[in-house]
Amino acid sequence: MAVYQDKDNRSWFCKFRYKDWTGKTRMTTKRGFARKKDALQYEMDFKNRSQETSDITLSALAEKYLADYKVNRKYTSYVTVKARIQCHILPYFGDAKVSDITPMRIKDWQNHIKASNVSSSLIRSINVSFSAMLNFAVKYYNLAQNPFVKTGKIGKIAKRVEFWELEDYMEVSSSIDKPDYKVPFDLLFWSGMRIGELLALKAEDFDFDNNTISITKTYNTGLKMILSPKTASGNRVISMPEAIMEETKEYFTSMYDLPEYPFRLHRIFTYRDWLKRYAEKNGKKVIHLHDLRHSHATYLIKHAVASLPAIAKRLGHSSPVITLQTYAHVYSDSDTIIANKIDDFLETWSKRGQD
Q1: Under 8 Å CB-to-CB from 269, ≥6 apart: which residues?
Q2: Closest among 143, 124, 125, 126 to 134, alpha carbons compared
Q3: What angle do CA 231, 182, 168 make, to 5 degrees?
Q4: Cβ(313)–Cβ(227) below 8 Å
Q5: Could you tell me the pLDDT band of residue 331, with boundaries at 50, 70 and 90?
């Protein structure tokens, strides 16, 4: 390791030769390290990054993986995955080489994270991100096998969605006397749009002649940025009930100075607080803002308002499979109803044969 101390400012620097991925020998220098240890670590990481080998450290692999992820995935997904890796994976494994991460070390890490104060669904997500990063190493850094093949992933997929039945929502909605909350809640319930999509709406996104709303963007509250929709299919035009569009039009007209984003007058936690207040006022279970979307989807499915592909398109899902997976409990209930109707028919038919 070619690490030296600068006598003038007592900082450390490294100067070394390395072989790039073509096998050619090169020279590089990096200055300004406060500690010798940092300079040594930089040299080791640099050499690992310059060669496609499973001897690369996990931190160097993470850097390469996240750089690729940032280019090929949505920025919000990149931020989420980066946080999982930096907070829950790298601190445990430190400077371990990828080739030294055995199934037993993965198992120890899983037990460690299971004992921490992390929800089961988040544990699952962290496992998925870690496994995906090691798959990246298998594909590009000659890792023999992803150790998750033997250990499997732990944690549980997010719990069953919460929702209100139509009657529940109508009771709550009729008790809301503040347009600032009634209009946004009605739009969320009757359109099935995401809260971020609502917050990104402008007045020109509403076609009051044809009673439609164009969804072309979403507002990320964490990043405080307007972004493209969650998926490509998120770009859509939603047909709305005329009564809800009239209510929205009157709300816009009542504003002295209509803001660029009419539904960002309040912060998201304010909407959450008021939805909770109205739920408790009407003796209903407390649900989240996103659950209004679930309530809309449940209403469409239970009342057979449209086919599964049509519902998926309205919700902005990339595939009807996602809709089916998310709302399988609703179809399960419907299946029970179907079975009961068959029983009723068979019972009637049996009695008919006895007459």
Answers
A1: none
A2: 143
A3: 85
A4: no
A5: low
Beta-sheet strand order (sheet of 206-207): 206-207, 212-215, 236-239
Residue pair 233/313 in contact (Cβ under 8 Å)? The answer is: yes
Amino acid identity, residue 106?
Answer: I
What distance in Å separates the CA atoms of residue 225 and residue 223, rounded to the nearest whole number? Answer: 5
Cα-Cα-Cα-Cα dihedral sign, residues 65, 67, 68, 73? positive
Token pair belonging to 124: 């699952």
Predicted confidence (pLDDT) per residue in 94-141, tens digit: 788 898 999 999 999 999 999 988 888 899 999 999 999 999 999 888
Contact present, 133 and 162 (Cβ < 8 Å):
no
Whole-angstrom Cα distance, residue 245 to residue 260?
Answer: 18
Q: Are 113 and 128 in contact, with CB atoms under 8 Å apart? A: no
For 83-94, the pLDDT digits (tens) are 999 999 999 997
The residues, any chain, with a CB within 8 Å of residue 4's CB and separated by 6 or more, are 12, 13, 14, 15
User: Are 254 and 227 in contact, with CB atoms under 8 Å apart?
Assistant: no
Q: What is the total residue count of the chain?
A: 355
Identify whether the C-beta of residue 264 lies closer than 8 Å to the C-beta of residue 218.
no
Q: How much is the pTM?
A: 0.68
Q: Give the C-alpha separation, 262 to 213, whole Å.
A: 14
Among 306, 297, 284, smallest CA distance to 325 is for 297
Structure tokens at 146: 């992803």
Chain-centroid distance, C-alpha 232: 15
